[in-house]
Amino acid sequence: MEVIAIQKSALEGMKNELKALLELTENATRKYMPIFKEEKWLDNQEVCLMMNITKRTLQTYKDKGLLPYSKLNRKNYYKLSDVQALLGAGRPYNTIGNASTDK
């Protein structure tokens, strides 16, 4: 085990910097908390598993405007209610062209 000795003032300075960083992080995330607390949000993988579709099919749904999404830090998120609404609609489009899957 290695022991490193530093001055108490240096340790206090590091503590203060860490506290300031924590406060900045909390302030930055505070404005997004109401959005995430109002409704459950799902990522790509969760939506694909829930709908039993591939990532490509999910991309098609997004491209055609069938499934709204929000982007945060280069990652897509979907409202659970939007996914459930699309599931309730019975996936109105297949992935080949715009042909309807309902007969």
Automatic annotation (TrEMBL):
Keywords: Coiled coil. Residues 4-31 form a coiled coil. Signal peptide: none annotated. InterPro entries: DNA-bd_dom_put_sf, HTH_17. Residues 41-87 form the Helix-turn-helix domain. Pfam families: HTH_17 (PF12728). This is Helix-turn-helix domain-containing protein. It comes from Flavobacterium ginsenosidimutans.
